[in-house]
Automatic annotation (TrEMBL):
The keyword Disulfide bond does not apply. PANTHER family: PROFILIN. It comes from Dreissena polymorpha. Belongs to the profilin family. It comes from the Eukaryota. This is Profilin. One of its GO terms (cellular component) is cell cortex.
Length: 131
């Protein structure tokens, strides 16, 4: 596996061809560990996701916000949130690990199922290793 957080973004997520934009943020402080170029999720958006994993009612009502974009919440579990933009068919997948959130979006040619698979596999790997 990669040796730096930026390598996880590039090698594992972006280079898969299934993830358009991606990021890894700390759960406790909402700080960015790494992200693809130009994909900036605000600390308020990260905090909203962290709270959403504990109580998804706001995500169902207000949607999932990432990098200034709004996605309709279509799935919420203890370690997984999935959202979709109805107009374009773009979407997002967020996986909660022990210490971080792995965030991926799919746009255009990127396949939703591929994005889901890549983000959840990385999330499960990190979670298994206590990260």
């Amino acid at each position: 596996m990669p040796s730096s957080w930026n390598e996880y973004i590039g090698t594992v997520l972006s280079d898969s061809g299934h993830v358009s934009r991606s990021a890894i943020y700390g759960i406790s402080d909402s700080r960015k560990w790494a992200s693809s170029a130009g994909f900036d999720v605000t600390s308020d958006e990260v905090r909203s996701l962290v709270v959403g994993f504990m109580d998804p009612s706001r995500l169902w009502k207000d949607g999932v916000h990432l990098g200034g974009r709004k996605y309709t919440c279509t799935r919420s579990e203890s370690s997984l949130i999935v959202g979709r933009e109805s107009a374009e068919g773009n979407g997002c997948v967020i996986f909660r690990c022990c210490k971080c959130l792995v965030i991926g979006t799919h746009e255009g040619e990127a396949h939703p199922g591929g994005c889901y698979s890549v983000v959840t596999k990385l999330g499960e790997y990190l979670k298994e290793h206590g990260i």
